[in-house]
Amino acid sequence: MSTDVLSHFGVLDELIQVIYQGFDRFVVLSQVTESAWSIYLGLKGPEGRWWRGSWSTKHILNITNGVQSSPKVLESFAEKLRTTFVNGDLAIGEWTENDSDINLTFGSTAKRPLHMALKELSAAEAASHATAVFTEIALQAQSRKCQLNPLFSPRSVTVDAESSHANSASTLPSKRTPLGLSQVPVPAANKLAERKIKALEAELARSKERSPPADAISKSSASSRPPKGASLANPNKKARKYQAIEFESDED
Question: Which CB contacts under 8 angstroms, 24+ apart, belong to 126-131?
């Protein structure tokens, strides 16, 4: 019967949380076995104090309305406890430095919080539990090449980048058409220089339109000159030729 009840509490196995209460810091570990759901509470400090509490099948059924509790009710109850644990809605009740018996409160902000009684472990029991915890950590670290914590792997980022590049390349057309000059991406500074050059070219074109061509100027200057032998007063008429008059001398 206990196995059937606790089989729904697997979501509470191997959870860990930190509780800050006043100037003290506690670490909470949750563990589920075939016989009970257990909580281990450790106080950070030079004394290395540990507490332990547990709920058996009987205790769980008393909270969930006895033997009439359906699997759905048990699963919902376990999930609520897990959410409370993960969200850190926990508190240490009846805590003083001299007390050996305290409790862990689940849902300290809820209307009906739950309390698990905790008893302090002896120094030998605390050391034994700490050793068991570190042994479990060491076993799990073997799959990470004995790293205590999972490390950031640059290789995974490289592989992801290469795969994403390959995916993006597969979407491109097999043949690329050459880009025109207007399509080639250029930096902002080059674009500004290009705009200035175009403005100067446009201004030069307008100035050329306003001024007549050099051939026209030479033709107009040539046409304005009177033809050879033309009259200066009336260029359309030929100039009159005057013959010098000779007078006879009186001696003749």
Answer: 126/42, 126/48, 126/49, 126/50, 127/48, 129/40, 129/50, 129/52, 130/42, 130/48, 130/50
Torsion (CA) 158, 163, 168, 170 in degrees, nearest 10? 140
**Residue in the structure block whose two tokens are 């032998």:** 229
In which residue are the tokens 């739950």 written? 114
Helix, strand, coil % in the chain, rounded to nearest 5 = 45, 20, 35
CB 219 within 8 A of CB 213: no
CA-CA distance, 76 to 62, in Å (whole number)?
Answer: 15
d(CA 116, CA 105): 7
**DSSP H helical ranges for the chain:** 2-6, 57-63, 71-86, 123-141, 154-170, 188-210, 214-224
Return the residue matching tokens 């207007």: 182
Count CB atoms within 10 A of the CB of residue 224: 8
The pLDDT tens digits along the chain (252 residues) read 555 889 999 999 999 999 999 889 999 999 999 999 999 999 998 888 999 999 999 999 999 887 667 889 999 999 999 999 999 999 998 888 877 789 999 998 888 999 999 999 999 999 999 899 999 999 989 998 899 888 776 555 555 555 555 555 444 444 444 444 444 454 555 666 777 778 777 777 777 666 655 555 555 555 555 555 555 555 555 555 555 555 555 555
- Please report which residue ranges of 95-153 form alpha helices under DSSP H: 123-141
